[in-house]
Amino acid sequence: MNTTELFSLKGRIALVTGGSRGIGRMIAKGLLSQGARVYITARKAQACDEAAKALSSIGDCVSIPFDVSSQEGIAGLVKQLGSKEKHLDILVNNAGAAWGAPFDEFPESGWSKVVDLNMKTPFFLTQALAPMLRLAAKQHMAKVINIASIDGLSVNPWETYSYAASKAGVIHLTKRMSLELIKDGICVNAIAPGAFASDMNRQARDHGDETAQTIPARRIGKDEDMAAAAIYLSSHASDYVVGHTLVIDGGVTLARG
Question: Which of 6, 17, 104, 123 is 20–30 Å from 242 (CA)?
């Protein structure tokens, strides 16, 4: 293969959950820039539609809003995507939630919501889309990218018990899924972001300069940092990378020890 084509996604079909904002939007933007047709889904239909319209200035972006936290939402999304495409080359499991509360007050609802969306949904959505991914794999490696977090690798200073546990689970789930799906030509890997400005990471969004002082690279993550990681794991360049978690954090995990 010509090395200039290693990172090309021309002609690829991608689905990004939670693609209307934050890290999902950064990833969608990156995939579009490399020539992919990108479907984004999110729970809020208006926000999803508006994001797809804005992203369409870069490439072919389509909104298919669904709540993927439920089996019904997953089934609806898969049915609608299947009515538009025969196969799926790239699945990015990005939709997620967080919850913080003191140990003695942490509610069960803070476990159920976070663990279901962050850890259960990536498994069952990938399972439901496996036939479309396997079809794509007849032509080239299909790719699944699970979005984890550095909080699943090292301990943050906040009491986000279910979030940290769910992201650690995603990292191990990625390893287990990868060994099964590689048999069908589907590469499963993960990205563990550090501080990127988003509605979920308001500290990085609202106090970027302050947060940067705690990061060895002395800055928070940029959109292109996340886009580059997703492009790599979606393209031919990562065809021999199986079950790994790519840490994009400016050195925070190492500094935490």
Answer: 17
Q: Which of 230, 228, 208, 221 is nearest to 250 (CA)?
A: 221
Give the separation between CA 154 and CA 148, rounded to whole angstroms.
12
Report the number of secondary-structure helices (H) and strands (E) in the chain: 10, 7
Residue 220 pLDDT exceeds 90: no
Structural domain of residue 190, as residue ranges? 3-256
Indicate the number of domains in the chain: 1
* Nearest-angstrom CA–CA distance, 66 and 15: 12
CB within 8 Å of 209: residues ≥ 6 apart = none
For the chain, first and last CA: distance in Å?
A: 40
CATH number at residue 11: 3.40.50.720
Question: Which ranges in the chain belong to alpha helices (H)?
Answer: 22-33, 45-55, 71-84, 108-115, 121-136, 161-181, 202-206, 208-212, 223-234, 252-256
pLDDT in tens, 8-51: 999 999 999 999 999 999 999 999 999 999 999 999 999 999 99
Q: Is 186 helix (H, G, I), strand (E, B) or coil?
A: strand
Active site residues: 163
Contact 239, 187 (CB under 8 A): yes
